[in-house]
């Protein structure tokens, strides 16, 4: 028999990993408000920060809103289904409908007033030029 030091959180860690695995396999669902967030890739080039988000089902510009400040991006909106199926004829309902919102911290300061967004094939791409002006300044000390 081997002795294992007592760790009260060992079982909690296994449970956390199992929940994370299960949640990562689930599509957008109305049952879990935390899952009402689009999946995103955030990366940067030498001159810009690029955010690519999965947003299938958008039909018009008013379905999505993008807010950018110096170091954060928020994408919010709603997905509606134009074709409604009667409940007794529905066999499986997995596609998300309703409100969504996601805010991410950007890896660099950006020029929010120069952001551009395109939507194609269910993917929203936001490109924002980096703000390369130094954020550093020297502060003079006043002596009395």
**What share of the residues lie within helices?**
10-25%
Largest sheet: 4 strands, antiparallel
Number of strands: 7
Topology pattern, helix = H, strand = E: HEEEEEEE
**First-to-last CA distance:** 74 Å
Strand sequence of the main sheet, in spatial order?
A: 1-2-7-6
User: How is the CATH topology of the domain at 31-129 named?
Assistant: Immunoglobulin-like
Radius of gyration based on Cα positions: 22 Å
Percent strand equals 25-35%
The helix/strand class is: mainly beta
CATH architecture of the domain at 31-129: Sandwich
Question: Rough shape?
Answer: flat
The residue ranges in which pLDDT falls below 50 over 5 or more consecutive positions are none
Instruction: Kindly provide the name of the CATH class of the domain at 31-129.
Output: Mainly Beta
The tally of helices reads 1
User: pLDDT average, as an integer?
Assistant: 81
What does the secondary structure layout of this molecule look like, with pairings?
Blueprint: H1 10-25, E1 40-44, E2 48-54, E3 64-68, E4 72-79, E5 98-105, E6 116-120, E7 123-129
Antiparallel strand pairs: 1-2, 2-7, 3-4, 4-5, 6-7
